[in-house]
Design goal:
The chain has 332 residues and is of the alpha+beta class. It has four helices and ten strands.
């Protein structure tokens, strides 16, 4: 599998207020969150007068999506705690620290060069990307969602069609929408016109074309891998709503009727605040909201993500499964 890479791997941020994830238990409670972005900031603008969100952005963060259980009452870290966590997290995620077991080493497959788990965050000091519910956790699934997930067939090597969508290079959850930090390929590029916004994800080379002209959503009978998106401006914030998702591309157990609302606000020259809310009463006991701060990548290029070229990995997966079946048949 070949991974696309942007020219910039490590995020170098201002020294004040690094953002971070959770620490081990036993730390003191952080103070109230600082005013990390200037409320008087005015973003650069296009000739139309709309904020200019264009460029290459990275959301590679060390902050976890959900708050660890041992920090249930701690939404923010102090700056000292954040620096301590950052150092520990970067060390823990270093894939060049190879295990002594040869088989475990092979399973890791890639050294640290290929991964982009984030080295720093962006000033918010949060212990989770989830900001609502207040506990920083994804709400519990409904009984209907639990039953649906239990009945969902697991991917198998019976044939290419029974493999998972990410293995087939069709869909990868972190590419979104919504866009979440992943193990690598955390860049996305925004291009704007007066009546459209294009979002190009490094992961799975997906381009999402979002109309801003007020056109209606397609009927519910038309469903796409990533749903259908429509956008509009609310002041300086770009708001994108997505519906009509396919049932086989759930987000953390969501149903095909999930409604996703994303918000993009440029809060500094080098920071784009990305927020999304998941509203799906069929799957979750309440809506939930995530905030992610993306850092602008100056003078960067986003190379093609080729996934596995010529589907050679699929040949290996299916060929290996058939070989295992032949070997098992010899002992029957």
């Amino acid at each position: 599998m070949r991974r696309g890479r942007a020219v910039m791997k490590t995020l170098v941020l201002p020294s004040v207020g690094v953002c971070c994830g959770a620490l081990v238990s036993g730390l003191g409670h952080a103070q109230a969150p600082p005013e990390v972005f200037d409320p008087a900031y005015s973003p650069p603008r296009l000739p139309s007068g709309k904020p200019d969100l264009q460029g290459l952005w990275s959301n590679a963060l060390v902050t976890p999506l959900e708050r660890p259980a041992d920090l249930a009452d701690k939404a923010f870290l102090t700056e000292d705690e954040a620096r301590e966590y950052q150092a520990k997290r970067v060390e823990a995620l270093n894939r060049d620290s190879r295990p002594d077991d040869p088989e475990a080493d092979i399973l890791l497959a890639y050294n640290d060069f290929w991964w982009d788990s984030g080295t720093q965050g962006v000033r918010t000091l949060r212990t989770s990307l989830i900001v609502d519910p207040p506990d920083g956790r994804i709400p519990e699934l409904t009984e209907t969602a639990k039953a649906r997930l239990a009945a969902t067939p697991r991917p198998s090597a019976d044939g290419p069609e029974t493999q998972g969508l990410s293995t087939r290079c069709i869909y990868y959850a972190t590419a979104g929408p919504p866009m979440l930090p992943g193990s690598y390929n955390n860049h996305y590029q925004i291009v704007q016109t007066d009546d459209h916004v294009l979002i190009v994800n490094e992961m799975v080379h997906e381009t999402r074309i979002v109309p801003l002209d007020g056109r209606p959503f397609p009927p519910e009978t038309i469903r796409q891998w990533r749903g259908s998106s429509r956008g509009h401006w609310e002041g300086d914030t770009l708001v994108i709503e997505t519906r009509n998702r396919r049932a086989d591309t759930p987000l953390r157990g969501s149903s095909e009727n999930m409604r996703l609302t994303e918000r993009f606000t440029r809060v500094a020259d080098d920071v784009l605040l990305y927020e999304f809310t998941v509203d799906d009463a069929q799957a979750f006991t309440r809506p939930w909201t995530v905030e992610i701060t993306s850092l602008r990548v100056e003078d960067g290029l986003m190379y093609e993500y080729a996934c596995h070229e010529g589907n050679k990995s699929m040949y290996g997966i299916l060929g290996g499964a058939r070989a295992a079946e032949r070997e098992a048949a010899q002992w029957e």
